[in-house]
Design goal:
Keywords: Membrane, Transmembrane, Transmembrane helix. With about 425 residues, the chain is mainly α. The protein has two domains: about 140 residues, no CATH class; about 280 residues, no CATH class. About 80% of the residues lie in helices and about 0% in strands. The protein is built from 18 helices and no strands. Helix 2 runs antiparallel to helix 3, helix 3 crosses helix 5 and helix 10 runs parallel beside helix 12. The longest helix is centred in the middle third of the chain and has 26 residues. It is elongated, with a radius of gyration of 29 Å. It starts with a helix and ends with a helix. About 0% of the residues have low confidence.
């Protein structure tokens, strides 16, 4: 902002803020007026003009509170609320429509005008735009309720419980052997894992069956690539014609695991990224490239049922198990580091990675801040990822058909070799 603009704003600040209050009311009024555009004049309780004037009135009420008495704003607000209540009461009797959304929107418009004048223009504008979007998407928002299943609502509420309720209550201090246990940090990692699984679950849910293996495989890596591998391996026994596409789905899911590893590391210890990124990206590419070539030759057979999502992604029992696993890995890692040095950390990474890469990735990233070197953590993460993909190769080979196992095994072994080599050299 140059000097002339600053001087103009300072000289005319009150006028500018009142104009913004008027425009914010107009914005919400346009949305409300468009909804009731078929009604005749006088049948609408509040349209463009009413909302614009109420926004301006909110700004004037804020000025009067500053210049005359602090009671000006609450008294005018109560007057607007009373007038709105009388009007909506009459409207309800006539139309039998008991929704008060429009009245709430009008009262919010008054408040936005006051915020624009007395507090912050950007905050008032953001709130007004969000309000207009919510009012304009009534059908879509209500439609979500019909699509939402009870266990998914339960999952969302539990995510809020473990994040905004439980997390702030935990002590943020080092405890246990070597001070490696921090209750707040451990539970924050649990929330992180649960949140990513939650996003991955709904990515698959929203994508729908028609998106096929390609979409499902990409996003399954955010939640559980092991579960998808098991599902597709079983499906290959039932429909051998889909083996190439099932292999594509498995490779995509396993490849998506590697960006997730980088995300975990970036959140815990970004300093590892410059050295960790090359081997992790190469391991992912070693899976994505073969998947792309298989897809190119088999793209007409992409239609397939996506995996059935039957598990609640945020059961508290699972969250507690993850927290316990993270704490156990941190304690074992510290003990093995003292007894066996780097060898102990690598052994822990290999055994932990068979089940899941998330806990060991988070644990090693955390330990690299205090007790182990960055290079040890990086190689340990690569070892864990390699062990995890070897396990999924075994699932594809022994539970699925031989041809599916062969299509999956070659890229997996290449990914393992490239990752270990680059990590060792760097």
């Amino acid at each position: 902002m140059d000097d002339i603009t600053q001087q103009f704003f300072a000289t005319n600040e009150t006028i500018i803020r009142l104009v913004v209050a008027l425009l914010l009311g107009t914005l919400i009024g346009i949305e409300r007026g468009w909804v009731a555009r078929e009604k005749k004049a006088g049948q609408r309780v509040a349209g463009i003009r009413t909302h614009a004037l109420v926004g301006l009135l909110g700004g004037i009420a804020a000025l009067l509170s500053q210049a005359l008495t602090p009671w000006a704003f609450p008294l005018i607000f109560l007057a607007v609320a009373g007038i709105s209540l009388v009007a909506w009461r009459a409207h309800t009797v006539e139309t039998q429509n008991y929704s008060i959304t429009g009245m709430i929107g009008l009262l919010l418009t008054f408040c936005f005008g006051a915020i624009a004048v007395a507090i912050n223009l950007a905050l008032a504008t953001a709130c007004a735009v969000i309000t207009a979007v919510i009012l304009d998407n009534k059908r879509e928002i209500h439609g979500l309720l019909y699509k939402l299943q009870s266990h998914e609502l339960d999952a969302g509420l539990k995510l809020l419980l473990i994040s905004v309720v439980m997390l702030p209550l935990l002590p943020d201090e080092s405890m246990g052997p070597g001070g490696v246990l921090n209750p707040y940090h451990i539970w924050w990692l649990v929330v992180l894992i649960a949140s990513i699984s939650f996003v991955g679950y709904f990515a698959i849910r929203i994508g729908g069956t028609e998106k096929g293996i390609l979409f499902t495989g990409l996003f399954a890596g955010l939640s559980s690539s092991t579960a998808l591998t098991l599902q597709y391996a079983r499906q290959s026994r039932r429909n051998s014609d889909l083996e190439p596409m099932l292999a594509v789905g498995i490779l995509l899911a396993c490849g998506t695991m590697f960006p997730r590893i980088l995300l975990y590391t970036a959140l815990i210890n970004p300093g590892l990224l410059p050295t960790l990124t090359p081997p992790i990206l190469l391991m992912g590419l070693a899976l994505y490239v073969p998947a792309f070539f298989i897809w190119r030759t088999q793209h007409r057979k992409l239609k397939v049922e996506r995996p059935t999502l039957t598990q609640n992604p945020l059961e508290l029992r699972i969250a507690l198990l993850l927290g316990a696993m993270l704490a156990l890995i941190l304690v074992l890692g510290e003990w093995l580091r003292e007894v066996l040095g780097q060898t102990g950390v690598y052994l822990l990474a290999a055994t932990s990675g068979l089940a899941d890469v998330a806990p060991i990735t988070l644990s090693l990233s955390r330990m690299s801040l205090t007790t182990i070197e960055g290079g040890t953590a990086i190689l340990g993460i690569v070892i864990a990822a390699s062990a995890n993909n070897l396990f999924k190769t075994g699932l594809s080979t022994f539970i699925g058909t031989y041809r599916l196992g062969r299509r999956v095994a070659l890229p997996m072994l290449l990914s393992l070799a490239v990752g270990l080599l680059v990590a060792w050299l760097t």
